[in-house]
Design goal:
This protein is 38% helix and 22% strand. It is an alpha/beta fold. An 8-stranded mixed beta sheet has the order 3-2-1-4-5-7-6-8, sandwiched between helices. The radius of gyration is 20 Å and the shape is globular. Residues 44-155 form the Methyltransferase domain. Pathway: Cofactor biosynthesis; biotin biosynthesis.
């Protein structure tokens, strides 16, 4: 289980340097904004996991008349975001856990970028978000899919086998498109999902792992041993290098899922309109 206290601490410690290393997250933010623009005009927006306020700024520029509530689990991140968005009077900030929302109001748009992987219970989180949507409101997000860092996962698996060490999962467990479809369909939301792969290149495994730590994405699982056995790490790094290195660089793949969902509207007679549920699976591959 992911410790929210550790998540908050990790991101808090990296809040000042986050933007320098969050290259993929920024790319996701731009793509997410396009989905939001396609969905329409909004008046009351909640952002979950605003971080330093990168997407918040894009939203504030796009919707200057909207009321925007930017939330995050890290008070340090909110401090940075508040400073970065000081010129926008339509933005307020809230210290919130995205899967345990305490806000009393409802929104016509809930948006989130690269935050859902820190949820412990996706069903609970999406149920909470659906309850905080107005009828006809939209839930739009970008999150990391199950194939994210598949090179790293394969390398850890090989290291565990080689050293005959019991397999444990390192880091957050990413969600599948099928599970997202099942959860959102079960809540009666319309479903539109897209996916893309973005591959970053690094000079070595150590450089890759350092870049991950720089954006606060350490192992935040409660009860796990943070100090991974040295032999396991060396074995993992050897396998990663020998299996995936090309032209002196190793790849790290981000599997990104974009979701756009709409809550049913009430009819004049108090019944809910039905939406046709459509899954759209379009894949793009980007090398960076």
């Amino acid at each position: 289980m992911i410790s929210k206290t550790q998540v908050s601490c990790h991101f808090g410690r990296r809040s000042q340097a986050y933007d320098e290393y969050a290259v993929v997250q920024k790319s996701m933010g731009y793509s997410l904004l396009e989905l939001v623009k396609e969905a329409g005009v909004f008046q009351n927006i909640l952002e979950i996991g605003c971080g330093t306020g990168f997407l918040t700024t894009l939203l504030a520029q796009r919707y200057p008349m909207a009321k925007i509530t930017a939330s995050d689990i890290s008070s340090e991140m909110l401090t940075v975001a508040t400073k970065n968005l000081s010129q926008y009077e339509n933005v307020s900030f809230a210290l919130e856990d995205g899967e345990n929302l305490k806000l009393s109001e409802k929104f016509d748009l809930i948006v989130s970028n690269a935050a859902f992987q820190w949820f412990n219970d996706y069903q609970q989180a999406f149920t909470q978000m659906e309850r905080h949507l107005l009828p006809g409101g939209c839930l739009i997000y970008a999150t990391f899919g199950e194939q994210t860092f598949y090179e790293l996962n394969q390398s850890f698996q090989a290291a565990h086998r080689s050293l005959e060490i019991k397999r444990v999962h390192h880091g957050p467990e990413f969600i599948s498109m099928r599970k997202l479809t099942d959860i959102t369909c079960g809540l009666g939301l319309s479903v539109h999902l897209e996916e893309e792969n973005i591959t970053e290149k690094f000079k070595g495994v150590r450089e890759f792992l350092t870049s991950v730590k720089k954006i606060g994405a350490n192992n935040s699982s409660k009860g796990e041993n943070i100090l991974i056995h040295r032999r396991l790490m060396l074995s993992m790094m050897d396998f990663y290098k020998n299996t995936f290195e090309q032209f002196g660089q190793i790849p790290a793949t981000y599997h990104i899922i974009y979701g756009s969902h709409k809550k049913k509207k009430r009819t004049f007679w108090g019944q809910y309109l039905r939406y046709d549920l459509v899954d759209t699976f379009s894949k793009k591959v980007i090398q960076k």
